[in-house]
Write a structure and sequence with these properties.
alpha/beta, Nucleotidyltransferase, domain 5, nine-stranded mixed sheet, two-stranded antiparallel ribbon, 15 helices, 40% helix, extended
């Protein structure tokens, strides 16, 4: 694929730059020795008189500061052989039917695999090369800041929980020509390193399918400490029953995984998995015309393999935190005049101080003490703002405690 002759040229230029930086320091050092002349220094180092004259008159700081190899204030100029190889790798990815990702990350990944002894350019540099060659598409503008202003507990979720957080979500119905029945999928995502993106076709968006595919995910990859989901009935359960543990919650708790439910009707609170679902549509579903389930399953397997390669997923052994049976909810405090300062948790209305209206809160339901604690995250610190008894439905507790105890 790649021409090592070109890289030989590149390495020579790279080594020449390194040698040049070393010569600058040597010129400076030799020029300070008694009896040294510019001519003798130039001859001993094999450099020009002009080079000696320039670098013997600089300070040590100037030498170190100007050792970047390109003009100060200017973008780094990538050598032409390197630029050509980056574009060749991009073309190879774009022409491979089993590869769905061709951006800077994928290019760098393949570069490092192809040339393990060479230092790859940064993602920013690769992105600039692809952009200058007209091989990128403009990104979409996203407004940021509102969630932080309203105290969305981002830091609490991704830094303070102390374990691996998996996100899961059903993907909106898809359709293929000649069939009226929808094609259903579920997506899983680890946002933090080691990152992972994985999709599966399911029969329907039900708790049975959620449990079945989640169990397969646990067996195939790893079992997280937490799993964050939306408030679909297949996951959270009854739309009217109070303080119930759904079948999906029971399955997760018996697997020593804590369920976390995102804010209802706020897709951005599932930003990682929603973004992955968007990638699924743009890179997979919208790029191919499917005629039957067999074609979908074959292509989906290739897409998942490509995604695993792209993200370089590897299981990292970690010490699991102690399991505490609980359910977590992220909620936005109501600012409606009819019920200001309230949140809805498993069909129970919880009254908070109206001063917290419109803010996001972190709600923890401890199943051992049957107590509900509500926290507000401010400046990356969580503050307890409410605590009350929250008795679990007895039928749910009985189901949870059947067989091997989860405690």
């Amino acid at each position: 694929m790649a021409s090592l002759n070109n890289y030989t040229k590149f390495l020579i230029k790279q080594n020449e730059q390194k040698k040049s930086n070393e010569n600058r320091a040597l010129v400076r050092m030799l020029s300070l020795q008694p009896g040294s002349t510019k001519k003798s220094i130039a001859k001993s180092l094999g450099v020009s008189i002009k080079f000696v004259r320039k670098w013997s008159e600089t300070t040590p700081n100037d030498i170190n500061t100007d050792g970047r190899g390109w003009p100060k204030g200017k973008s780094r100029q990538v050598q032409q052989p390197m630029r050509e190889e980056i574009l060749k790798i991009h073309s190879q990815l774009a022409d491979d039917p089993d590869q769905y990702f061709t951006g800077a990350t994928a290019v760098k990944q393949l570069f490092e695999q192809t040339f393990p002894d060479l230092s790859a350019p940064s993602l920013r540099t690769i992105g600039r090369i692809l952009k200058e060659a007209g091989r990128t598409h403009p990104g979409r503008y996203r407004q940021k800041g509102a969630s932080a202003y309203l105290c969305y507990p981002e830091h609490l979720l991704y830094h303070d929980l102390g374990g691996r957080l998996l996100e899961a979500d059903f993907i909106g119905h898809k359709f293929i020509t000649g069939q009226t029945a929808a094609v259903n999928f579920i997506g899983f995502s680890f946002k933090q390193t080691p990152r992972l993106r994985y999709f599966a076709r399911i029969q329907s968006q039900t708790s049975r399918c959620f449990i079945e595919q989640t169990d397969k995910f646990f067996q195939k990859f790893e079992k997280p400490d937490f799993i964050k989901m939306d408030n679909a009935l297949a996951m959270i359960g009854s739309a009217s029953g109070k303080r119930n543990l759904s079948e999906s919650m029971l399955f997760l708790l018996k697997n020593r995984v804590v369920p976390i439910f995102a804010v209802p009707r706020k897709p951005f609170t599932q930003a990682s998995i929603e973004g992955n679902n968007s990638i699924f549509s743009r890179f997979f579903w919208n790029k191919t015309h499917f005629n039957n389930f067999e074609e979908i399953d074959l292509a989906l397997n290739r897409f998942n393999q490509s995604s695993l390669w792209y993200l370089n997923y590897k299981v990292i052994p970690i010490v699991k935190p102690d399991f505490s049976p609980k359910v977590i909810f992220i909620r936005q405090v109501s600012q409606e005049t009819s019920k200001p300062g309230t949140i809805l948790v498993l069909n129970e209305l919880i009254q908070l101080d109206p001063v917290y209206s419109n803010y996001y809160v972190f709600v923890e339901w401890n199943l051992l003490s049957e107590q509900l604690s509500v926290f507000l995250q401010k400046e990356k610190q969580k503050h307890l703002i409410h605590q009350s008894a929250f008795l679990c439905n007895k039928n749910s507790l009985n189901k949870l405690n059947r067989g091997e105890p989860f405690i």
